[in-house]
Design brief:
This protein is of the alpha/beta class and about 210 residues long. Helix content is about 20%, strand content about 35%. It has a single domain, classed as Ribonuclease Z/Hydroxyacylglutathione hydrolase-like (Metallo-beta-lactamase, Chain A, 4-Layer Sandwich), CATH 3.60.15.
Length: about 210
């Protein structure tokens, strides 16, 4: 089932794919029909159908991979081959993807989709090159696609590494919670969306428990 969210400038469609219930997000610029996919995780035919639904012309321009883990790239090669879309990923994860990466993303970069500008936020810890994308909405809440760096109830798995956990929680705190409003919608790489306001009160608990 495709989940649809409309902003004043974009349409966001989400579909759950693969055995790990990954969520892939298609962002379509309303003004131009240009499209960007966040995480070609699995089921390439499902993702191609999503592209066609997002815009009948099927104009997928870019696939952004939030991080290197295999469950987030299972359909990447097939989707790029079928659509000719360009690829982008965090610079420190780019060499670990199954396809060449056209653009290596750094903190503060902007990825353009038609008339939309998505801000790149580097969130270190789940993987070295994990990135999130912020979609601003001048007439409503902003939206952030966090991959596996932020979920309802906590940050992403850092496999018991205290240093990686501290880096990730610091980045999430300083680069998301400190700069975005509480009504910002969080679209994670697995599971249901949430808001920063719903999660903010839990930050001290996350730091105390260490995961």
């Amino acid at each position: 089932m495709v989940e649809h969210t409309a902003t004043s400038t974009a349409d966001v469609r989400a579909v759950h794919v693969g055995p790990m219930d990954n969520v892939a997000y298609l962002v379509t610029c309303r003004a131009s029909g240009a499209q960007l996919l966040v995480d070609a995780a699995d089921e390439p035919d499902t993702l191609l159908d999503l592209v066609q639904e997002g815009d009948p012309r099927g104009r997928l321009g870019t696939v952004v991979t939030t991080h290197r883990h295999r469950d987030h790239v299972g359909a990447l090669e097939a989707l790029v081959e079928a659509t000719g879309a360009g690829t982008a990923a965090g610079a420190d994860d780019a060499d670990h993807l199954p396809v060449p990466v056209d653009r290596r993303l750094a903190h503060g970069d902007v990825v353009r989709v038609g008339e939309l500008a998505l801000e790149v936020v580097h969130l270190r810890g789940h993987t070295p090159g994990s990135v999130a994308l912020v979609l601003r909405d001048p007439d409503g809440p902003d939206h952030v696609f966090t991959g596996d760096s932020l979920f309802p109830g906590g940050v992403g798995n850092t496999r018991g590494d205290a240093g990686d956990f501290a880096r990730l929680l610091d980045d999430v705190t300083d680069r998301l919670f400190a700069v975005l409003a509480d009504d910002t919608v969080v679209h994670p790489g697995h599971g249901a969306p949430t808001t920063l306001g719903e999660q903010r009160p839990q930050l001290p608990q996350w730091r105390e428990r260490g995961w």
